[in-house]
């Protein structure tokens, strides 16, 4: 059944939102706010419907031709057919809408820090491998993989490396892992890039047995000497792409990043922010806005390998960095050493477990949780610890709004900003600086 729908808003996730003639809300992928579209109603629930975009009757002038031939087939990008400024405007709209609906907080305006690079910005790409030894990405809402020669948001050099790798893997007839039948060996290939020009190549296999690994590594290294490290990660878990013990096949097993202030060594399985220039701006914003005077005790929850912790340590008295990944904690300690910072302690722990037993008081708490946010139990503990300031870094506006609503009982927003870490996609990264209300 076809309907004509006016798209009023955008949902977090990138779909356009409109109303069917009866008033029921409908989500339409690929349609933008301000457009009149013809949709095929695919499914209807009691309170909303899902529609397929059939035809754009009236389009917004900010539409453009996507520079990528895989767009709408590959599940990676959402907005390649939309001018960058308009992407930012829509992200702002989505973020403010989430805060208003979930946290009951109405922002009058919001600053967005743009990404200096619209394309080729991603530092880490995780590739699926097809049986013909080509590489690609999952389609949206599907396990099917679309083969992609050159991804427009990845560093250009990745395409060249993959071309050679495809021939090499095929030459050695490396069995590609079949996720349905749970047979085969090679699950993923991952490339990490540093603006210094270094590259790290990672093979993720189902089992330990990868006897051709060293030979393949040496052939690839010969062709691309700038590949500083080649690593073999063994991961039997099919739900998570990059996790597990690893062996270094070539090089020293780390990739180096250098911000204006600190240097970081990143091991293959540790988290590192994906857009270098935006990450640096985000660290600068958070640490400056916390207005540290050198006497504070700071807790950095979900610290990773110290992206925020090191700068916080340079500006305060002492930092406790809490992180659950063993590899990241080890890297964090090494990074503190490399940067000559002694006033920082990395603790390997689950954030909630740590909060449940901590006795110390903190002047400042910084938190940068995964997409699930931090949750009511941990927020309750933070409210009890009652730091003067909180810096909340979020990669999911929905869970951020849920957590923020609870924090607003005792805190007020001093500053809040979006950092466009992921141009062309619906993802929204934000930083909020909260300060304790005077009388609490
Ligand atoms: C979004 S990353 C942020 C890392 C770091 N702040 C940075 O900017 O590089 C989230 C981090 O939280 C860690 N993590 C995930 N769940 C955790 C938990 N329950 N307790 C502690 N750390 C956790 C992950 O290993 C990851 O390093």
TrEMBL record:
Its EC number is 2.1.1.190. GO terms for molecular function: rRNA (uridine-C5-)-methyltransferase activity. InterPro entries: MeTrfase_TrmA_CS, NA-bd_OB-fold, SAM-dependent_MTases_sf, TRAM_dom, U5_MeTrfase_fam. S-adenosyl-L-methionine binds at residues 273, 302, 323, 368. SUPFAM superfamilies: Nucleic acid-binding proteins, S-adenosyl-L-methionine-dependent methyltransferases. Transmembrane segments: none annotated. The active site is at 395 (nucleophile). Belongs to the class I-like SAM-binding methyltransferase superfamily. RNA M5U methyltransferase family. This is 23S rRNA (Uracil1939-C5)-methyltransferase. It comes from Thermosipho japonicus.
């Amino acid at each position: 059944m076809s309907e004509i729908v006016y798209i009023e808003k955008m949902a977090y996730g990138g779909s356009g939102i409109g109303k069917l003639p009866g008033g029921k809300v409908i989500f339409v992928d690929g349609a933008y706010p301000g457009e009149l579209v013809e949709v095929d109603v695919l499914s209807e629930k009691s309170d909303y419907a899902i529609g397929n975009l059939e035809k754009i009757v009236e389009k917004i002038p900010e539409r453009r031709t996507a520079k990528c031939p895989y767009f709408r087939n590959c599940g990676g990008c959402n907005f390649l057919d939309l001018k960058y400024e308009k992407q930012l405007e829509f992200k702002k709209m989505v973020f403010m809408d989430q805060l208003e609906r979930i946290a009951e907080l109405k922002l009058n305006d919001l600053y967005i820090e743009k990404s200096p690079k619209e394309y080729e910005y991603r530092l880490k790409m995780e590739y699926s491998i097809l049986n013909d030894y080509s590489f690609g990405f999952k389609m949206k809402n599907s396990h099917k993989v679309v083969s992609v020669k050159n991804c427009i948001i990845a560093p250009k050099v990745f395409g060249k490396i993959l071309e050679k790798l495809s021939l090499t893997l095929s030459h050695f007839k490396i069995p590609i892992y079949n996720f349905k039948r749970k047979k085969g060996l090679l699950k993923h290939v991952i490339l990490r890039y540093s603006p210094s020009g270094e590259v790290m190549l990672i093979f993720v296999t189902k089992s330990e047995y990868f006897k051709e690994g060293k030979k393949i590594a040496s052939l690839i290294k010969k062709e691309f000497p700038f590949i500083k490290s080649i690593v073999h990660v063994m991961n039997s878990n099919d739900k998570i792409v990059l996790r597990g013990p690893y062996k270094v096949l070539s090089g020293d097993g780390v990739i180096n990043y250098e911000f204006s202030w600190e240097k970081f060594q990143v091991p293959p399985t540790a988290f590192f922010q994906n857009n270098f220039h935006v990450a640096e701006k985000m660290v600068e914003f958070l640490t400056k806005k916390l207005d540290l005077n050198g006497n504070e005790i700071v807790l950095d929850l979900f610290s990773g390998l110290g992206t925020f912790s090191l700068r916080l340590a340079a500006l305060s008295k002492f930092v406790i960095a809490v992180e659950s990944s063993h590899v990241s904690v080890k890297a964090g300690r090494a990074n503190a050493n490399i940067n000559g910072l002694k006033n920082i302690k990395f603790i390997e722990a689950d954030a909630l477990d740590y909060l449940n037993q901590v006795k110390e008081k903190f002047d400042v708490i910084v938190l940068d949780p995964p997409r699930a946010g931090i949750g009511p139990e941990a927020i309750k503990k933070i409210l009890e610890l009652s730091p003067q300031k909180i810096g909340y870094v979020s990669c999911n506006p929905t869970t951020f709004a849920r957590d923020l609503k609870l924090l607003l009982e005792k805190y007020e927003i001093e500053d809040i900003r979006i950092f466009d870490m992921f141009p062309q996609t619906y993802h929204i990264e934000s930083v909020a600086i909260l300060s304790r209300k005077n009388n609490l």
